[in-house]
């Protein structure tokens, strides 16, 4: 998204500059190109990251670099106060403790039409907490994602920037251990994990297809057979029946509700394959109405959560409520303090900051059968580049498995949502600051 604050270098001379440009063109002289130092360093970091990825994942195809968007990775590192790490780890433990409670699961699946989903025993690979910070370095959980991208690609950022990973020493090894555990939980045998399929709809058309190739290369390096399957393939049923031990599911049909997903859903519910992530984990963690449950003191107290942890969750999770006819007028009047989005969407699809939503778009939320939520607004903070030339908004992504945080990344962007278009923006590594006086992040 273009920077709305960008201006001509000298507005008062814009007409003369245009005339000069036209004169140069008429005389067959190319207009001089003004170098952008930030664009140059971004390109160098991108090139270095691609080289490191090719060494780390040796099976990548020759055209791998062409799949990497120009602004996918940022040249900056985001320095965070160490208390951010402590809060995220505490959040992972509390949420996992709630997630495994049978009473909580009964509440979530009370109206489920197929009781088999309650018996699914595994968790999910590549969950994430997507987080904003406040001025005191307090975390605010914007959403839980059970289909978080960039895990494989992100690990190479740390090597490219010469940094240690912020949680697990070897996040890739931790992911493979989690994959083996997922298979064991579902199969209930002592047989080792042998065959993995990576599934998405039209994988080569996905913006992060390059990460599928990285995952495939790494799994093969670990001695596993691995193929990438297309959920839109008319022959999908036959491909799914080829005896996969585990399917790493990147398909955004989170609930396997489409006709194309019917056979996969049956394999999943009958536990003929370990699916990860999967609909049960989505319902337990990622449906955005869960954020309402995770900060409700009555629900939490009834589940046996202690008062200190209840207070922590209420501070960390923004107020979240279902958009209802009864609250329509109040929500419109208070819209500048709210963020609106579908309860079961992904990315920024149909999501609006209240200050920028039109009355028409607001009313359309009430006309759709899909549940919509209003969330108290915790806007992303900004970071300034070291020379002060540019500011970026940022958010943080922390990947977890069960109660263990495995890795973290930052995303720098301009505009309302993360869009990987800003020069100097993109995914980047994070590092911890030990200094107690560091109360907000900075770029280096």
Tell me briefly what this model is:
The chain is α+β, with helices and mostly antiparallel strands. The protein has helices at residues 14-26, 37-56, 82-99, 102-108, 151-160, 171-187, 209-221, 236-240, 262-269, 279-286, 290-294, 297-302, 307-316, 328-333, 359-367, and strands spanning 78-81, 127-133, 139-145, 195-200, 225-230, 246-249, 274-276, 320-322, 338-342, 352-353, 372-376, 382-384, 391-401, 404-413, 426-428, 430-433, 442-443. Helices cover 35% and strands 19% of the residues.
List the helices and strands and how they pair.
Blueprint: H1 14-26, H2 37-56, E1 78-81, H3 82-99, H4 102-108, E2 127-133, E3 139-145, H5 151-160, H6 171-187, E4 195-200, H7 209-221, E5 225-230, H8 236-240, E6 246-249, H9 262-269, E7 274-276, H10 279-286, H11 290-294, H12 297-302, H13 307-316, E8 320-322, H14 328-333, E9 338-342, E10 352-353, H15 359-367, E11 372-376, E12 382-384, E13 391-401, E14 404-413, E15 426-428, E16 430-433, E17 442-443
Parallel strand pairs: 1-16, 4-5, 4-6, 6-7
Antiparallel strand pairs: 1-17, 2-3, 2-13, 8-11, 9-10, 9-11, 12-13, 13-14, 14-15
Helix pairs in contact: 2-5
């Amino acid at each position: 998204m273009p920077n709305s604050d960008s201006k001509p270098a000298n507005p008062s001379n814009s007409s003369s500059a245009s005339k000069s440009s036209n004169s140069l063109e008429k005389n067959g002289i190319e207009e001089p190109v003004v170098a952008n130092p930030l664009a140059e360093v971004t390109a160098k970091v991108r090139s270095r990251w691609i080289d490191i990825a090719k060494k780390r994942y040796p099976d990548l195809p020759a055209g791998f670099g062409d799949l990497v968007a120009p602004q996918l990775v940022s040249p900056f590192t985001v320095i965070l106060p160490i208390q951010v790490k402590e809060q995220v780890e505490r959040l992972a433990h509390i949420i996992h403790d709630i997630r495994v409670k049978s009473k909580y699961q009964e509440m979530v699946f009370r109206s489920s039409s197929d009781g088999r989903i309650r018996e699914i025993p595994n968790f999910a690979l590549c969950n994430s907490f997507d987080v904003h910070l406040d001025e005191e370095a307090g975390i605010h959980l914007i959403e839980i994602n059970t289909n978080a991208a960039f895990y494989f690609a992100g690990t190479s950022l740390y090597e490219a920037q010469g940094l240690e990973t912020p949680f697990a020493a070897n996040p890739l090894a931790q992911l493979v251990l989690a994959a083996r555990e997922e298979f064991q939980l579902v199969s209930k045998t002592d047989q080792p994990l042998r065959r993995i399929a990576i599934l998405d709809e039209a994988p080569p058309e996905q913006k992060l297809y390059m990460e599928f190739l990285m995952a495939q290369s790494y799994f093969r390096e670990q001695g596993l057979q691995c193929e990438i399957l297309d959920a839109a393939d008319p022959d999908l049923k036959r491909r799914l029946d080829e005896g996969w031990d585990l399917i790493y599911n990147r398909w955004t049909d989170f609930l396997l509700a489409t006709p194309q997903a019917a056979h996969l859903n049956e394999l999943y519910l009958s536990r003929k394959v370990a699916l990860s992530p999967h609909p049960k984990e989505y319902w337990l963690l990622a449906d955005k109405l869960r954020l309402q449950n995770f900060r409700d003191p009555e629900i939490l107290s009834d589940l046996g959560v202690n008062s200190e942890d209840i207070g922590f969750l209420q501070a960390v999770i923004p107020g979240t409520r279902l958009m209802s006819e009864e609250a329509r007028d109040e929500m419109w009047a208070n819209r500048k303090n709210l963020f609106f989005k579908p309860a079961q969407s992904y990315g920024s699809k149909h999501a609006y900051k209240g200050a920028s939503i039109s009355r028409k778009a607001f009313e359309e939320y009430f006309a759709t059968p899909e549940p919509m939520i209003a969330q108290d607004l915790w806007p992303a903070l900004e970071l300034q580049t070291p020379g002060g030339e540019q500011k970026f908004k940022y958010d943080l992504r922390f990947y977890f498995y069960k109660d263990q945080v495995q890795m973290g990344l930052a995303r720098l962007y301009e505009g309302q949502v993360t869009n990987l278009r800003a020069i100097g923006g993109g995914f980047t590594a994070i590092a911890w600051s030990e200094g107690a006086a560091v109360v907000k992040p900075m770029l280096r």
